[in-house]
């Protein structure tokens, strides 16, 4: 009884305005607190990025030289000198082959999902499972290639490329399907009305309309794959010399960062920072190119 | 005028003929590519389980109940394979990571959808994208060389201040001198899962109907009350899915954790102590797995990790999709 009376009296005792000052202190305080928290969380996220980039550039830049980028890896990581040439070669070789495998297969898979399967049971389960596959830890993918490929053959660049391709595949499928979905249906209908077969419609009309988005998504997948360490450690082995062949032990930039980081010697730490800068530059270049492609050729969303 | 050239008879589009064959071939190839995903997932389970079998048979139920992992012959006694302390390490690191990452990610997502001035928005998005594209091994390198040693002082301070309080004291125990342990690994992982949680919660927040927000403001709500009353209830399902996806990523994170967790097989409440996770122990010991079936036992850890992450990711995918359907229905 008393509460209703109070509620009815409140507007009388506190003349209401719509300004900020008329709010109850508690409500105003809560609002300010939350707004501060939100700004703070942005700052907290920016700080580590800035710090990592600072350390990678500050400590890595002084290592970078033509010799460092091309010379073979020293046998003793404790000694200064030597370079990371074989690791750069291995990263380019394995990431390149993985892209050649995963991008066509991924785009075809996306074509199945968006053009053929649509909402049927198989397409829905493929869609769900490619989401699940994106979350499979990279180390598990490494174990998979180890048990399926390495045990019957050898540790090799090919095995590394297969592992990276498995990691890229679901990423490519998901991003490509998003892009295919943005292609207006009128284009398909127009092509079909001209008498084109479905496959011809897809290859000559739908894919060209979506190609920039697909390329940009695929390049993001490539960037992600180039930085993968765990599967490479398991399936690729180790080498000191440049190996452009798919067979035989190989190495990659992330593996060299990992190995050098675990050594307590200053020469090794320096080498790790230098390799980290090289890897970050490669990854960011791929990301940047993918951004440019996406912005330059973006198809208009409907 | 009357000359009508002989046209070839129009070819009807039928389910037969050369064009139709290529049509069928193309659809079959794309179907195969789609089905490849299912095949790979099944193959992962089959091949890893086959290689893990000797160790699983050897260890029996002890594989999931024993906390000790001794991959060597000690005084004639055979090796012991118990995954419990690694499961514990995985859980602790993931929980620490979520405690740090979830509020920050939700904060960033709210900033991007509700608070940010337009010009700042694209800058923050770029920074988060940059965060997502830095390889995990680079975070690991930073963690082991810069963060760990820097945090030891903080850990020592916390240990000194809170170490004598009964329950908290056991959490904030004696830190490792290198700074490598559950807490350091958890914080590094937190940085790495911020982008994924942020991007999904942001998508979810963006689907909150403007009418709901305007209605909240019209009732005199402050910004926080609008967020609490209109944004959060609408996007709760999606947020849960985002957190679960972040959890899946945190559990599978390997190299950065391997570098920063300090590699010890133990179950301790001390957050500053060294430990190991399922993923990191595989990466650290695969080159030198001990006596047979040591490597098989490491693969068995991988099977366990695979099973856990698949269940979590499957559940997350279902939750996100359900939330997605509900929201699209609501805003249509």
In which range does the helix fraction of chain A lie?
A: over 70%
Number of strands of chain B: 2
Shape of chain B: flat
Largest sheet of chain A: none
Oligomer: heterodimer
Can you tell me the CATH architecture of chain A? Answer: Orthogonal Bundle
Largest interface: A-B, 93 and 91 residues
CATH class of chain A: Mainly Alpha
Rg of Cα set of chain A: 27 Å
> What is the terminal-to-terminal distance of chain B?
57 Å
Radius of gyration of chain B: 27 Å
Write the H/E string of chain A, N to C.
HHHHHHHHHHHH
Sheet/helix structural class of chain B: mainly alpha
> What percent of residues of chain B are in strands?
under 5%
Mean pLDDT of chain B: 87
Structure, described:
- The complex is a heterodimer of chains A (302) and B (332).
- In chain A, 75% of the residues lie in helices and 0% in strands.
- Chain A has helices at 2-13, 25-61, 66-70, 85-117, 121-134, 138-150, 157-182, 185-193, 198-226, 230-235, 253-262, 266-296.
- Chain B has a single domain, classed as MetI-like fold, CATH 1.10.3720.
- Classes of the chains: A mainly alpha (302), B mainly alpha (332).
Layout of helices and strands:
The complex is a heterodimer of chains A (302) and B (332).
Chain A: H1 2-13, H2 25-61, H3 66-70, H4 85-117, H5 121-134, H6 138-150, H7 157-182, H8 185-193, H9 198-226, H10 230-235, H11 253-262, H12 266-296
Helix pairs in contact in A: 2-12, 4-5, 4-7, 4-9, 4-11, 5-7, 6-7, 7-9, 8-9, 9-12, 11-12
Chain B: H1 18-59, H2 62-65, E1 69-70, E2 80-81, H3 84-115, H4 118-133, H5 136-162, H6 166-171, H7 182-206, H8 210-218, H9 223-252, H10 255-260, H11 278-285, H12 294-331
Antiparallel strand pairs in B: 1-2
Helix pairs in contact in B: 1-12, 3-7, 3-9, 4-7, 5-7, 7-9, 8-9, 9-12, 11-12
Summarize this structure as a short list of keywords or feature phrases.
heterodimer, A: 302 residues, mainly alpha, MetI-like fold, 75% helix, B: mainly alpha, 73% helix
